[in-house]
């Protein structure tokens, strides 16, 4: 958005829902004067699209994962910015693709576009903090999937005067969420000596958020090289997978219709019980380890 406005182009951000994980940052954006009427829904975007409209798809290149599939289908000009392993279900015929699987995150790639733009981009503190938060999230506080370019991007954002402590506060959990994550970890089981599998109880607040964070925390346990947490929500079984690198969780969860990258991936399974998905997951892990 900031890049487009620098070049004096009208721009909007399409977002149908904020999602629990980033609701704090999104609330700050929606209450910022600079972003008044900028964030719109896909139905609003459908009325704005023309033959010359450029749709920029960020953090995925798979059509089904796009937050506004109807807008994607209508747009004539599509650009993709992504860092995930290329899928056979990729969006067809984009006019430009910035796809780097070795990048830490889409936020790193967007930051590089800003860094090397011909015109100087004046990022607001809020914009820089959002990008920095994206890098922090995908690298687990610079502990995973980082390279020289990751730290160069972070340094560029830091020069804008961002408040790192304020960013970290956005990701702090309340007591109930922390206890729920601890419960998931306590009830986990170890398979194949180094892989933890757990089930998140249904009906609890922030269930999907807890599923992902519990998978992160399980990976911190001594001897655990991969972790999976399953959760049943609104008729679907969600799987969050994490790995230190010994098991490619992206390839494994692609078998369940999911994706991500080798250290962090997820999937959603329709028309199945959580017990069935768990058994299928264990079978898939067994096959992967036997290869």
Folded structure, characterized:
The chain is α/β, with parallel strands linked by helices and 291 residues long. It has helices spanning 2-6, 23-30, 42-46, 69-74, 106-115, 125-139, 148-158, 164-170, 175-186, 207-218, 249-254, 274-290, and strands spanning 13-14, 39-40, 54-58, 77-82, 96-99, 189-191, 195-200, 226-233, 236-243, 259-261, 264-270. The strands form three sheets. It has a six-stranded mixed sheet with strand order 6-7-8-9-11-10, sandwiched between helices. Strands 3-4-5 form a three-stranded parallel sheet. A two-stranded parallel ribbon has the order 1-2. A hairpin with a 2-residue loop joins strand 8 and strand 9. The model has no long low-confidence stretch (mean pLDDT 90).
Q: Biggest β-sheet, characterized?
A: 6 strands, mixed
Q: What's the gyration radius in Å?
A: 20 Å
Q: State the helix count.
A: 12
Low-pLDDT residue spans: none
Task: Give the ordered list of helices and strands.
Answer: HEHEHEHEEHHHHHEEHEEHEEH
Which oligomeric state applies?
single chain
* β-strand amount: 15-25%
Total DSSP E strands: 11
Distance between the termini: 45 Å
Structural class: alpha/beta
